[in-house]
Amino acid sequence: KAGVTQTPRYLIKTRGQQVTLSCSPISGHRSVSWYQQTPGQGLQFLFEYFSETQRNKGNFPGRFSGRQFSNSRSEMNVSTLELGDSALYLCASSWTGGAENEQYFGPGTRLTVT
Amino acid sequence: GESVGLHLPTLSVQEGDNSIINCAYSNSASDYFIWYKQESGKGPQFIIDIRSNMDKRQGQRVTVLLNKTVKHLSLQIAATQPGDSAVYFCAENLYSGYSTLTFGKGTMLLVSP
Question: Which of A42, A19, A44 is nearest to A33 (CA)?
Fold first, then answer.
């Protein structure tokens, strides 16, 4: 079966702009989580969606937001981009989002803010 | 490929050696732990998991050891192969919780043929 897909794979934006990233989970998976990966901070949890509802949120400013559609596809948005938002953004999907459900990660979207 | 970490501890081994990667976790309440492997340009890939009611679990060529007293995890890879070269992360969670993983900083494993 097809894995988690993320689009676009690479993105370059300017400070102050906003960006939307997309994630399509594995067919049948209803939970989608987003993570930010940087060399300095490593992998950090952003938020998790299940059945179009945000169930949990990490410690990120309100500029970071997301949503999930009825087909489980998810988008995350970052407004008023800052240089520090440059990172690899990873999406992971699982059946129900319970801790014991294996999470499958996509390849990520590499965002560069200049 | 993309670099996933510029300042990671690195373990260099020869092909055929056994590798041991260590991780200290942060939350004494965590009761579910996972090891992930991340190759350049790819997302993390599940390797093996362990619950806190166990202190050892074995998979194919991999073994995870858990020491709750000192909040320490280790991943042992037997007969390491060049294809094992990657960054390895431990992650912790509450078993009864949602899939909101807290990741360690990662260790880069380099395997020479």
Answer: A44
Show pLDDT as tens, one digit a residue, over chain B (113 residues).
333 445 689 999 999 999 999 999 988 888 899 999 999 989 999 999 999 999 999 999 999 999 999 999 999 999 999 999 999 999 998 766 677 889 999 999 999 99
How does pLDDT run across B83-102, given as a tens digit for each residue?
999 999 999 987 666 778 89
What B59-63 contacts at long range (C-beta under 8 Å, 24+ apart), as own/partner pairs, is B62/B35
Give exposure, B74-89, as e/b (b: 16+ Cβ within 10 Å).
bbbbeebeeebbbbbb
Of A42, A56, A88, the CB nearest to B105: A42
* Residue in A89, A103, A109, A111 to test binding to B, most B beta-carbons within 10 Å: A103
Chain position carrying tokens 């992650």: B91
Angle ∠(B84,A42,B2) on CA atoms, nearest 5: 55
Residues from chain B that touch A60, judged by Cβ atoms under 8 A, are none
Query: Which tens digit of pLDDT belongs to each residue from A84-94?
Result: 999 999 999 99
User: What residues contact A69, with CB distance under 8 A and at least 6 apart?
Assistant: A52, A75
Other Cβ atoms within 10 Å of A30 Cβ, number: 17
Contact B104, B89 (CB under 8 A): yes
User: In 3-state terms, what secondary structure has residue B50?
Assistant: strand
